[in-house]
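#struct-help
A.M.: can someone run this one for me? Single chain, 547 residues.
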Amino acid sequence: MLNKTLLPGAILLFCVCLSIAGHGQQVNMKITRHYLNIPIGYQAKMRLMELQVDGKMKREFPVQLAEDSIGYWIYIDVSEFKGKKITIFCPAGENALKRIYQDDRINGADSMYKESNRPQFHFTVKRGWNNDVNGPIYYNGQYHLFWQSFPFGLLWNTGFMYWGHAVSKDMLHWQELDPALMLDSLGSPWSGTAVIDKNNDGGWGKDALVLYYACFDRVSSKQVQCIAYSTDNAKTFKRITGNPVIDSNWELGSNDTRDPKVFWYEPARVWVMVLFENDGMSFYNSTDMRHWKRESHFKGLFECPDFFELPVDGNVADKKWVLHGGSSEYFIGNFDGKTFMPVTEKLHYAEGQNDQGGDFLYAAQSFENMPDNRRVQMAWGRIVHEGMPFTQMMLFPTEFSLKTTEHGIRLMTTPIREIENLHGTAHSWNAITVRQANEELNKIKPGPLHVKLKFSIAEGNKLSLRYQGNEILNLASREFRAGENEMEILIDKTVAEIFINGGERYMIRQLAHKTNDSSLEFDSEKYGPDLHSIQVYEMKSVWDNDK
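D.P.: on it. Structure tokens below:
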């Protein structure tokens, strides 16, 4: 449960140690601790808060500062200002401002990652909102995950987005770090990509980690492409002095120019950028990472491009390129370094929409520079977490492959093999009836699960599954192969991800509020499948060692 009021010790710290003086719409304090803890009200009016040091603005962000009851707390890292006096400006009442306090702990740290509605093996942010995945990459022995972050509340605000940043050794256990990028004079850093400059083409240092991102001006709505880089193992990032490197708004007559995807194309020894512009994806080339030339344009996909090459059926002598946009729509085709030439119609690799008609899976990006040459993606899971100090999530990492099917070459996606490291207590049954399966499944307490099924289903029958009383799957026999089928189901606090026949179908379901305390169960014993085997693994939390 979140703290609703300050503890007596925290109040003493606020009043005595920090020497805070309220002045109506501003508060002054000397920074001696790591964090500012700021109370948020669910129904409070959104107000612009500003932090100044020596009369210069250092931070600016909108916040629902709690005037009365406190719904939850957010935090701001102010360690860089230790020993300095700061002034906090906000058009709010004096009492509301006085509840802001500094501490070396985040308010609610004792319950962080243990909250009642916190997913236990999917990545979620500590506080606030996340959306698009940005520039996932393997760099110097670690996986780096970046994302669009609004750490100041649960309501998305596109004018004040940051680049969140987390690192991992296994793509499962993530440590959230300080933001990689915050606002600058050009605006808010929107989505983009990360690459390693192995030959110092950009002149920022050999093996520098380079971020390409769209920058959004909240006044003009202009979107331009910018660069930041790191030479200290991604601890800090510096923006280059030549930003923006692409400004195509006037030329295209559109502000829709965003989400650069950049990679090195070895056959032509050139850098390639795929950039969403107006009505599709533009392909740019560069040799110095700074100066870019548009080579072609491909219509039909919308924002957040990802673009990569994969072998067909594992044959490295037969490769195809996959281009997809913000949703799970994609094309398969060929690429010569300048132009993408599709060989399929528009396809899709994931299914599932929320109540507003939006895809649960959005803005997926795949990891660059993976040590084993796998193509693993993570996606924004557009799922609300009611009553929590955070919202949205990342879907579980999945591995892509291209396989030949009766309908042609298709993109498959399956959970990464590292999932086995999260397996706890295991349950297994062979050649079991649906009635027997329900009896056994009912003995397993509801909670994070990884389920594997092998089954066949007679013509006219169906496979219907429920979790805690709510339907998560209902498919007729005609939607499966004749003979044996396979299915994997990942169940976490708020989401179910379903993979059928090696990723031929990938379905995302938001879990509804429970209507009973049963675990997974087959809804129809009369029309259910013939079960060849069931394996159920109770899942360990990825947060056990991360505070």
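A.M.: thanks! Residues 112-119+130-415 form a domain with the Tachylectin-2; Chain A fold (CATH 2.115.10.20).
D.P.: also worth noting: The helical segments are 8-17, 94-98, 249-252, 434-441.
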